[in-house]
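Budget justification note: compute hours in this period were largely spent on complex prediction jobs such as the one shown. Inputs:
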Amino acid sequence: MADTGQSARNETLSANPVVLVQGIAELGRNFLREVGSVFWFIAQTFEESLERIQHGRVPFRAASFFRHAGRAGVDSVPLVGLVSFFLGLTMALLTGYQLQRFGTERLIPGLVAISFTRELGPLITGIMLAARIGAAFTAELGTMQVSEEVEAIEAMGIGPLRFLVAPRMLALFFLMPCLSTVSNIAAIFASSLVSKAYFSIAFVYFLDLVKDALLIRDIITGILKSFLFGLLIGAIACYRGLTVKGGAAGVGAATTSSVVTAITTVIGFDTLYNIVYTVFFPT
Amino acid sequence: MVELRDVCMQFDEKKVLDGFCLTVEPQDRLVIMGQSGSGKSTILRLVLGTLRPTSGSIFFKQFEITRLRRRKLQQVRRSIGMVYQYSALLSSRNVRDNVALPLEEITDKSREEIDKIVDEKLELVGMKDSKELMPAELSGGMKKRVSLARALVLEPELILFDEPAAGLDPVIASVIDELIISLTEKSRVTSITVTHEMDSAFRIGTRMAMLYRGKIIEDAEPEKFKQSENPVVAQFLSGSTEGPILEDSQDAVAKK
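Corresponding output:
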């Protein structure tokens, strides 16, 4: 009896690595399938929109675009501004106290400006938009999907991708760089307050230090990332919404999944971008 | 007008349509009856092209729906109107905008022309005074009427009705049925209605078909349909719990 138990345990142990590898391979395959589906979704949206333009018609109404832009952009300014303000403030404080030990507090403005402009501005804004607007888009489209509204649009001979998805994606695509800029300005402003209050760096001197440290390539990097993140967040949110199954529970699950996927994707692409940029465009 | 040839439709393990064949002539008011979950709504979606069959061919006029590319399919769909079981009105748009949507997106009509057509269709269904209401403010019957108006704006040649009386009280259901009859007669359109509501079916249909186990087992005019000797049809019409429908066998189809 004891021998049978031991051999069963041995069999399980020997099967585990295979099961583990299978599990990892399945995860990897599902991930690649998802990535492929989202990019195919983006391509189809562009195709449908371009087809419409080729026939001399606008793919969607300007009112629809501005409505989504208002929600995604204008309504997000207070949140983005506030969060970036506190982050900039914290960053200036924490780095300032360390730099002060070496008498190099004057590096604070450049450090905050470059960090936010190249990296944190687009990243933090992307994460906030994924949580706020991405979730909203997924929930809206998911609810439309389960209540047959999307099918009704398709049945009328109206392309659902150019009618529903294109204005949302385009709104996020254009508004992300604007919101990243708001984030950068808020963070730099906050760090200027800290610099003045704790490290005796006057505002005018602070601005000079920012101008000296910040390069055009830093600004361009941040803006390009913002465009990319806006496109990805919009695509993932809309894709998740339109592929909802299973009623209200499905909408809930899709919304959560959309936020998690968008945030992970933004961080992943940010890392990829940085690697590519560092390798191909070294300073 | 519409032809389905040897259509099979399978969802995972479940075969919903199995060698399904059906022909619909112009100006027919065909009613397809069947049990819940038998595939009636699936037939409508196959005709619309929003679902692709596992195998088989579907024709609407000279177009083979199953082979059309997306752009051409979108054009063909403009000749087909659909009234959904739960109306499928866009919840973010009011009644006027819901009905105007196909005109705004597909035609080059001016705002005045669109408003005129919308008013005309809403008047036909008795909803002209409710233009500014949102779908959430409408009753089930009102939603159905608005959905019907929306289906008619592009003057379709074929209208599909998915359980038009579902969820409505008998009086309102009769109102909807009468609307369907009068509008389809006036516009001389062909219609396919799927339902399991007996009264509604016999009121609307000029031709009735029974869907059972993925195939049409009876296809006749209403009076002949009522007198069908097919035990499945007889059991369905009588609503009896005894008979082949609840038995897990193929005998009823074989006996026919």
